[in-house]
Amino acid sequence: MYKYLVFFDLDSTLFDKNSQVTDEVAAAMDKIRAKGGLPVIATGRTLYEIPETLKKTKIDTAVTSNGDHGIYQGKELFERRIDPHTIDELDDFAKQNGNSITVLDQKGKGASRHDELLKKACAFVHAPLPKLVDRDYWYERPIDMMFVTTTDLDDVYEEKFGDRLSFYRNSPFSIDVVDHGASKASGIKQLMEMTGLTGIPTYAFGDGNNDIPMLDFVDHPVVMENGRERVKDHAEFVTTTNTNHGIVNGLRHFDLI
Fold it and tell me: In DSSP terms, which residues pair with 178 in a beta bridge?
């Protein structure tokens, strides 16, 4: 039985400014395990996007796609697939508004078109531009995560699709999209219940809007100094920035390493 669970967001949290895991952070994951804890990734990214992160941190348990997918000890635990007919409608609506959509599963991703906002969104998280795909792509694959490019139409998309999809603003150029009701909190709850990891002290590190449900769910929420101000309102402790030993300082504050 683990003594505690620690959930880590990636971008601007576990990652450095280049979206990489530093040697210091990788060593901290080893120290967590040495003290009887379980480090868990909780991210809006998919497994397809983070193989090197998993390898360097030696983490084999993760909640990905903002709660739509989970693995435990390297094996798939759960998945929520987004209805492809709903994706058709989102694609149509995005085109009407001059936006694009990108669809992801745990093995790949594709975009409806390469607009300027998509290029900026990918550059923002140091990710390559996804390949262009047609609608057959999301009927043939179990899509559990999407993002739509827009700078200011959050409420418009929410009003149109809020009964079927959940939206999280996670960059200046795009909104993350998942199945209705999915969140990092719902994914963490499902992970803990399916693996019998309930009743164990929980900690979480985050910085963005999509981290708020997770921060509210765990016993001890930690927000990075570089996090959004509204996210810091949900913190028990605000650690230093992700580029100034924030993970290590936060873990030491709670005597987790």
Answer: 166
